[in-house]
Design brief:
Largest sheet: 5 strands, mixed
Number of strands: 5
Helix content: 10-25%
Shape: globular
Radius of gyration: 15 Å
Strand order of the largest sheet: 2-1-3-4-5
Mean pLDDT: 91
CATH architecture: 3-Layer(aba) Sandwich
Structural class: alpha+beta
Order of helices and strands: EHEEEHHE
Bound molecules: FE2/S2 (inorganic) cluster
């Protein structure tokens, strides 16, 4: 990737949405209890979003075998990222850290060393922004 596509923006291009799957399950979770996805969403809501990040819940991100799953979406100019295998009891601080770093970028690409460990190792997919043009 070209260096000019990576980095922080002086004026980030609009708000970021952290979307959490409310219906995700996790191996070992009580099948009669609250869904781990809903627990993760509630924990994030209670913690509060970083500046420029809003939270929403949806039913299924098509990453069911990697639950809990979240997506970071940042408008037409940022890449979208989906992360999985998230644990509501362990990963809330790293999700918030990663969302804040993402919101500070122009293109959604946080330099590798600045990503929380969870985001380095548990990425499910990344999707190019609407304004992305391939050179091929
Ligand atoms: S149920 Fe969570 S991604 Fe499908």
């Amino acid at each position: 990737m070209a260096d000019d596509l990576v980095g922080k923006a002086a004026n980030p291009p609009g708000p970021v949405t952290l979307t959490v799957c409310l219906t995700c399950r996790r191996e070992g979770a009580d099948p009669e209890g609250a869904r781990p996805g809903a627990i993760l969403h509630a924990a994030l809501a209670e913690a509060g979003m970083p500046e420029g990040v809003r939270l929403r819940g949806v039913e299924c991100l098509s990453s069911c075998k990697r639950g809990c799953a979240v997506a970071l979406v940042g408008g037409e100019e940022r890449w979208t990222y989906v992360y999985g295998d998230l644990d509501p009891d362990q990963h809330v601080p790293e999700i918030l850290e990663g969302a804040a770093a993402y919101a500070a970028t122009a293109d959604g690409v946080v330099p590798w060393r600045e990503r929380p460990q969870t985001f380095r190792k548990q990425s499910v997919a990344r999707i190019p922004p609407a304004k992305f043009f391939s050179e091929e």
